[in-house]
Amino acid sequence: MKTIEWDQVDNYPAFPSCKEYAEKEEQKNCFETTLNNYVSSFIARKNLITASDINSVVQLEFTISRNGEIVDLQIAMDSILQQEIPSLKDWLTNSIDSLPALEPANKEAIPVATKFTLPVVIKSEKFTN
Predict the structure, then answer these.
(1) CA gap 78, 48 in Å, rounded
(2) Which of the chain's ends, N or C, has fewer CB atoms near its CB within 10 Å?
(3) Do 61 and 115 touch, CB atoms closer than 8 A?
(4) Are the C-beta atoms of residues 17 and 79 closer than 8 Å to each other?
(5) What tens digit of pLDDT does each residue of 35-92 get?
(6) Which residues fall within 8 angstroms of residue 87, CB to CB, at 6 or more apart?
(7) Which helix (H) or strand (E) is 57 found in, with range?
(8) At a CB cut-off of 8 Å and minimum separation 6, what does 66 contact?
């Protein structure tokens, strides 16, 4: 199955809160903002304690299938971040797995799979007594 790029769809994937937008750019902004807010708030609820200050970006790459399911999740992070926060990969996976239901993107009124990359900024201050 071929995956279609964002600029080739007529309608972006939609969370329930984004269905009201008719314009393509509004749909895209709502989708990206909702996704980013959801993942960021999921991570913010975790108790991040690190031995050094962290300001890093993790790349989440995934496909939203024709059924609206997130598949092929890949998480890219540097080794220092992985060492400092060993549970981070699991937290990110859980945040994506627990997203609200999605409507898939459409091309000519046909549901299509789309690829997406989400950069997630991880910041933490060094724990001191």
Answers:
(1) 17
(2) C
(3) yes
(4) no
(5) 999 998 998 888 777 778 888 899 999 999 999 999 999 999 998 889 888 999 999 9
(6) 46
(7) strand 54-64
(8) 1, 104, 111, 112, 113
- What type of residue is 9? V
**pTM of the model as a whole:** 0.82
Q: Is the dihedral of CA 66, 107, 73, 38 positive or negative?
A: negative
Domain boundaries, the chain: 6-124
How far is 28 from 8, CA to CA, in rounded Å? 12
Nearest CA among 104, 124, 111 for reference residue 51: 124
Report the alpha-carbon distance of residue 64 to residue 47 in Å, rounded: 29
With CA atoms as reference, report the closest residue to 78 among 101, 104, 103, 52: 52
CA distances from 105 to 42, 65, 72, 90 (A): 24, 9, 17, 27
Q: Which residue, 120, 117, 111, 97, is CA-closest to 12?
A: 111
CB atoms within 10 A of CB 97: 9
User: Which tokens in the block code for residue 97?
Assistant: 């797995």
